[in-house]
Design goal:
Layout lengths: L1 H10 L13 H14 L3 H14 L4 H7 L1 H10 L4 H15 L18 H11 L1 H10 L5 H17 L1 H10 L3 H6 L7 H14 L4 H9 L2 H11 L7 H14 L3 H9 L25 H17 L6 H13 L2 H9 L6 H15 L3 H9 L1 E2 L10 E2 H9 L6 H15 L3 H9 L13 H9 L4 H15 L3 H7 L3 E2 L8 E2 H10 L4 H15 L3 H9 L3 H10 L5 H19 L10 H12 L1 H13 L1 H6 L17 H19 L3 H13 L1 H61 L4 H48 L8 H150 L6 H16 L1
Helix pairs in contact: 2-3, 3-6, 4-6, 5-6, 6-9, 8-9, 9-10, 9-12, 12-15, 14-15, 15-17, 16-18, 17-20, 19-20, 20-23, 22-23, 23-26, 24-26, 25-26, 26-29, 28-29, 29-32, 31-32, 32-33, 32-34, 32-36, 33-34, 34-36
């Protein structure tokens, strides 16, 4: 019925009027369909289907409504002929596809917009049609397999979910589609990639099946064959299919990691870095491919994945060198801005919560410019420079903040390192540190830089009480002649001065995180008497847009934190006084409304969903993920603390209740007595009702018996009043007498026969006894002996039959007795089970609990052994790394010592040459002195020259 109504719906669009002498499109299609269905020759049917295929572009509606059944019949009956099968499949593709073609002519009518989807619904309504297409994939002929792949892809595009279910329930359906990737013809393989991309969309079950069909190996091989990251559109399709299989599918992610496929992603990032290369060297296709590979990596370590899976993937990425390659791209030159942004986001999720990867990221240094520059800048500092620079792209700055947050997530060592750069030290003032950049961004004129710096500093002290107290030591220099101001007070001053909303929101989030669970910070905050009045004025205000209301809500939150973490050292603002201020000056209801309106805002809802900062405009930046987590946990404590304000009133109510407690007790006793009396009366009433029911039943029984007696009496009277003939009575008497006589005769005959048998038996027994005793004559009459022998045999036979019957009866009796005993045993077991079920269940539970405890202990011991082994392995690996580092250091020192030794040798050789020159000069001078008549002694002269040399040296 539904199929016919669908056809009727389509036929109303077939309104094209034929021209004069020319048939309409519907008539032409009708004649061709009739020819294709009625022709006996294959050539005629092939020509008709070819003509239908030619008309299927222009007359989609006519072909779809009239030729669908005929074309399906052709696919079933004529599949041995590849040519006619290909024509039918092409016709189906033209009818089902909604994509316009360049050479398509204008039709004369307006059909429904979703014509292809409606025809697809009709086609897949019969699941055998989908099975027919899947069976056609087994044909290797190009003219059959290729249009079949295209048709299935079009059907998936139109009705993805319905066709996924049909393929999923079909035996080996997914396997047949996966086999297309092994086709040697590239066009079929490439279209199969598009098909599988449609097939695996939003269907976890199909994704798992495809993954277990060795999809990862096949796709990575295709990517390698197509040129890797520098490949074309085929590489993009393979990466999209990999992304479909891995994204939000923890089973496939674990299978991908356990199959050692993560290491094959590392070569994709092995880019030859050329310092002179610009963005011209990056083609659009290469940028797209590397974006998809980065998304693949992020899908394996996304914060939404299970924690254990993320940890394992992060360890694998470090082991295979993927983390190192990503950090190399991070510090490379000539990388496009969008690729660099996505790389920073990927590095953030690769190192998030993993101490090993975080430590490696902290050790990465940016290449010096120029290369001969002696000091290297850490990569974190370079990234923070981009974050606080308002000229950098907005998405890049957001990615840097996300990376910085991920570096500090669950990393107390990293938090300590960042806070140390804020404290006064004797370090080189010319060196730029992370603390300087954060302070510069916090107090710059750019409100977005203020927000970024405040959130970055917030993450440096989140859940770390030690660093919160260390941050209180930070002092900021002001104008000349004025004393320095603490960082906390300077933040309060900026908030009190007003300014832009984004700046105030960032600093208020920083202050709230700083003061949460830190009484020392709260004490410093309350020390300035102007801070609390400012908070009160903001919370009491009711004007402003949504962002201003968020500021007021954060001020209420900050005031609540002062209430919770107050150590009562400040006499002006103790816990009691702050509570009184909230109740009297603000109002408990108004304070609660200000506090709860933060969680109702859209910005808060968006920020708390995931830690990744994904904003398109700077105006959307309001709340931070870590702060939202803090707000959600502390808000309840603040409201709970305020709800305990009415303790005195509750005490008064308790006193009033105690006064009335005695009266309530009396009433309780009275009610209890009345309940007991009522129970007694109910018991008596039930016993009386039982006796009444018994008496009533006895009366009913008596009445029934009386009625039966009356009926019998009436029957006897009626019988007595009836009359019978005397002849009949005499006849009955005679028949009865005859029967009695015959029975008596039979009885006497039976008795005589029995007596005879007894006599014969006794005689036989006597003779047998006589024969045994040797008293019988052996020459007796042989005939008599034979007769006796026959009689004995007959008697023995009768006796044997009687014994057999007796044994059978005994067997039946024993069987019945055994069945009866079994039934009694079962009954006793059921009774015993019903009586002792509780005890048995308790015993079973105890035994099971003991077994579970033993197994749990064994599992725990095994887990402990595995953990110890893993820890020992990690320790050994750390020791190996340390020894390698020490060895590299020793090698460096050795090279330096060798260089120094060579320089010393060169200097020594130079000195020897100089000494030789001096010796020759001295000899000349001695010779000249001798020629002049002076007496020269060699030792004295040497000493003199030595003295002169010493003087010269001094």
């Amino acid at each position: 019925m539904r199929y016919s109504s669908k056809m009727d719906y389509f036929r109303k669009y077939l309104g094209a009027q034929p021209g004069e002498g020319q048939p309409s499109g519907a008539e032409t299609v009708e004649r061709l369909v009739d020819r294709a269905s009625s022709s006996t020759l294959l050539e005629d049917r092939r020509d008709a289907v070819r003509a239908i295929k030619a008309l299927s572009r222009k007359f989609r509606l006519e072909v779809g409504t009239q030729a669908m059944e005929t074309l399906l019949h052709v696919l079933e009956s004529d599949r041995s002929d590849s040519e006619i099968t290909g024509y039918a499949l092409d016709a189906f593709c033209n009818v089902m596809s909604n994509e316009p073609t360049d050479d398509e002519e204008e039709v004369q009518f307006q059909g429904p917009d979703d014509l292809g989807a409606q025809f697809t619904e009709i086609f897949i309504k019969k699941s055998d049609n989908v099975g027919l297409l899947l069976s056609l994939l087994e044909e290797y002929d190009f003219h059959v397999r290729w249009p079949t792949v295209k048709l299935i892809t079009i059907l998936l595009t139109n009705k993805c979910k319905d066709l996924q279910e049909c393929i999923l329930v079909h035996p080996m359906g997914v396997s047949k589609l996966m086999d297309l990737l092994s086709d040697s013809r590239e066009i079929i393989r490439n279209d199969a990639l598009l098909l599988l991309n449609q097939l695996t969309r939003s269907n976890a079950n199909i994704q798992k099946i495809v993954a277990f069909e060795n999809a990862f190996e096949r796709l990575l091989d295709i990517i390698h064959e197509e040129g890797g990251i520098d490949g074309g559109i085929v590489v993009e399709d393979c990466l999209l299919l990999l992304l479909n299989l891995l994204k939000n599918n923890s089973s496939n992610q674990n299978f991908f990691r356990e199959g050692s496929h993560v290491k094959y992603l590392t070569p994709f990032f092995d880019l030859e870095q050329d310092p002179h290369r610009s963005q011209v060297g990056w083609s659009a296709q290469k940028v797209t491919n590397i974006h998809l590979v980065l998304q693949l990596v992020r899908s394996l370590v996304s914060p939404s994945n299970p924690q254990q899976l993320n940890t394992n993937c992060q360890k694998t990425m470090y082991t295979c060198g993927l983390v190192q390659q990503l950090c190399t791209i991070l510090m490379a030159s000539g990388v496009p801005a969008d690729v660099l942004t996505e790389t920073i986001n990927t590095v953030a999720e690769v190192i998030r919560g993993n101490l090993q990867n975080q430590e490696y990221f902290a050790s990465v240094m940016a290449p010096s410019n120029p290369p001969s520059y002696p000091s290297l800048i850490p990569a974190i500092v370079v990234l923070l420079m981009s974050m606080v620079n308002e000229k950098q792209p907005f998405t890049l700055r957001c990615a840097v903040l996300y990376c910085f947050q991920s570096f500090l997530y669950k990393n107390e060592v990293g938090q300590s390192q960042i806070v140390q750069t804020l404290l006064p030290t004797s370090a080189d003032v010319n060196t730029i540190s992370a603390g300087q950049l954060l302070c510069g961004g916090l107090f710059s004129t750019d409100s977005l830089s203020n927000w970024f710096a405040a959130v970055a500093m917030l993450n440096a002290i989140s859940d770390n009480a030690t660093q919160k107290e260390q941050l209180l030591r930070v002092q900021l220099a002001t104008s000349l002649g004025n004393p320095p101001v603490s960082l906390l007070q300077q933040c309060c001053n900026i908030v009190a001065q007003g300014g832009r909303v984004q700046t105030r929101l960032g600093i208020l989030m920083l202050l709230a995180t700083w003061m949460a669970d830190c009484p020392t910070a709260v004490s410093h905050f309350l020390f300035n008497t102007a801070n609390v009045p400012y908070l009160i004025s903001q919370v009491s205000s009711s004007d402003g847009d949504e962002n201003e209301q968020n500021v007021q809500g954060l001020c209420a939150f900050l005031l609540g934190i002062c209430l919770l973490s107050n150590d009562d050292q400040n006499e002006t603002f103790t816990t009691a006084s702050l509570r009184q201020i909230i109740e009297k000056r603000i109002g408990l209801e108004a304070f609660t409304n200000k506090l709860t309106q933060v969680t109702k805002s859209e910005s808060y809802t968006r920020a708390i969903k995931k830690p990744h900062i994904n904003y398109k405009q700077a105006s959307e930046v309001v709340f931070d993920y870590e702060f939202c987590r803090l707000f959600k946990s502390v808000e309840h404590d603040i409201l709970k603390a305020l709800s305990s304000n009415n303790r005195e009133e509750s005490k008064k109510q308790l006193a009033n209740l105690k006064e009335h407690e005695s009266i309530v007790t009396q009433y309780k006793d009275l009610i209890q007595e009345q309940d007991e009396r009522l129970k007694d009366c109910q018991g008596r009433l039930e016993s009386i009702e039982g006796e009444y029911r018994k008496a009533k039943k006895q009366l009913e029984d008596y009445a029934q018996q009386i009625q039966q007696l009356k009926d019998q009496n009436a029957l006897l009277k009626a019988t007595k009043g009836s009359k019978t003939s005397d002849g009949d009575k005499d006849e009955e008497v005679r028949t009865l007498n005859d029967r009695v006589q015959s029975l008596s005769l039979q009885l006497s005959e039976k008795e005589s026969h029995i007596e005879k048998l007894k006599t014969d038996l006794s005689v036989v027994e006597a003779r047998v006894v006589a024969q045994e005793m040797g008293e019988e004559d052996k020459e007796n009459n042989p005939s008599e002996t034979a007769v006796l022998q026959q009689t004995v045999n007959r008697l023995n036979t009768d006796l044997h039959e009687l014994r057999v019957e007796l044994s059978n009866k005994d067997a039946e009796i024993n069987k019945l007795n055994s069945e009866c005993s079994q039934l009694q045993t079962q009954l006793q077991q059921v009774q015993s089970i019903s009586n002792t079920s509780n005890e048995d269940s308790d015993a079973k539970v105890v035994s099971l609990s003991e077994d579970v405890t033993k197994l749990t202990d064994e599992r725990n011991t095994l887990q402990d052994r595995v953990k110890k082994a893993n820890e020992e392995n990690l320790n050994l690996i750390d020791k190996v790394h340390k020894m390698e580092d020490e060895l590299s250091k020793k090698d460096g020192e050795k090279d330096m010592i060798k260089e120094e030794l060579e320089t010393l040798k060169k200097e020594q050789e130079d000195l020897l040459v100089l000494l030789a020159d001096q010796d020759t000069k001295i000899d000349k001078y001695k010779q000249k002195l001798k020629e002049l008549g002076q007496e020269v002694e060699d030792d004295d002269d040497d000493d003199d020259f030595d003295v002169e040399d010493d003087d010269d040296e001094s």
